[in-house]
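Researcher: Structure for this, please.
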Amino acid sequence: MGTKNGTPPGAQRGDTRTRLILAAERLFGERGIHAVTLKEINAAAGQRNESALHYHFGSKHALVEAILLYRVRMVDARRVELLDALLECAGKPGLRAIVHVAFGPMIELLETQEGVRFVRFLAQVLNDPDFDLPSLVLGSDFEGIARTNALVVS
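Model: Predicted structure, token format:
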């Protein structure tokens, strides 16, 4: 659901990069990554400059990675909050609590429209052989992911 001018919700009018990310996430999730053109993404983001997407991302592949990082950063920030709260309790947390911290933020996101859009987008990425989602996310420097992984293996 967008505003009157087609700007995705949550994006400020002047934030072209975010508007492009949100528009692409929605379109990719609805129709698939290869079925959507860069021109369609620009239009959905309310961007008249046809080179804006290329300027901000360079390629469709880089745009997909930017969408993933945009959402995973939000989820991971919440994961860090939950992890800090968990570790304030005395003793080593059990596996159940660690798994809750690891996956809870994604479940919280799923309770929103933007979370549903993100999951649709993720389904497209997971089914596309051009993308290695686990390597991208695990190879990133997300504090919450690293800390929960360390708790599981220790």
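Researcher: Any notable elements?
Model: The longest helix spans residues 60-88. The chain has eight helices and no strands.
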